[in-house]
Design goal:
The protein is an alpha/beta fold. The protein contains 12 helices and 13 strands. α3 crosses α4.
Length: 343
Amino acid sequence: MHAYAVQDARGMVKLDAMENPHRLPPGLQAELGRRLGALALNRYPDARVNDLRAALAGFAAMPEGFDIMLGNGSDELISLLALACDLPGASILAPVPGFVMYAMSAQLQGLAFHGVPLTPDFELDEAAILAAIREHKPSIVYLAYPNNPTANLWDDAAIEAIVDAQGRQGGLVVMDEAYQPFSSKSYIDRLARHGHVLLLRTLSKFGLAGVRLGYLMGPRALVAEIDKVRPPYNISVLNYECALFALEHIDVFATQALDIREQRAILSEALQNMPDVRVWRSDANMILMRVPDAAKTFEGLKARGVLVKNVSKMHPLLANCLRLTVGTAQENAKMLAALQQSL
């Protein structure tokens, strides 16, 4: 193994980590600063964290009879799910390529991980996943909606077949909606149909990547069991106050998300018109593209001051693929010019 590495982005156009490129307006920065400065940092987090749980439940339109659990980013929640399900014979299953923390959480907890390859067009291989569920009887099936790094949504009928099969054998399904602010669909309307499905979201892509705040929604009794393995005071007073502040100014973040979706369309069209570049449809704030030589193109972009993510070694299906975060109009223009010179 190796530790999670963060690329040095100082002085670069940073398009490697699916962050919202927009900062708070100056007036809101000052207002938030005053609010954070008044907090009792000498005290442990208090019941105000429950105000955030209620605010997020309302923001997400959480169904009746469900509850919400907070994590220090969705990464912590993924780790806690593996911990909660660490029983003899337990395993975790997910389509691959996918978010690396599904496999890593299993590995660190001593659970088996079963990765089921997507099709060459990054669609779910429904038959293969159903066969894997029958064979391995996993404790958890992760379905990212949309997926990282491929940025696509999957077929609804295939998802429901997988959800039903996993429920019949007594396991959980976690629908990971990290990129929900940019997606044309959400599973929230179907969540109440099932007693074994959890919905995972984060405020990182929403615009608070530096705050580290994830949340998990599911049937109340089920969330209560997972909550037993949560460390005390896992959400700091700074985390929850920043998140509450953001939810009070939801219109600002909604405008930012709209701009990112509009820029995604412009960027996708420009990339599709480039020779030797293949682009897949995106429902996230990133775009996956294939170029003739990913390593050469990555280094060419970096030399021209643009940092993206080279995912070509993550999985054979991603051969010669780069993942681009959708930035501001100016950042995207600089990236496109650098890409044209690098190809």
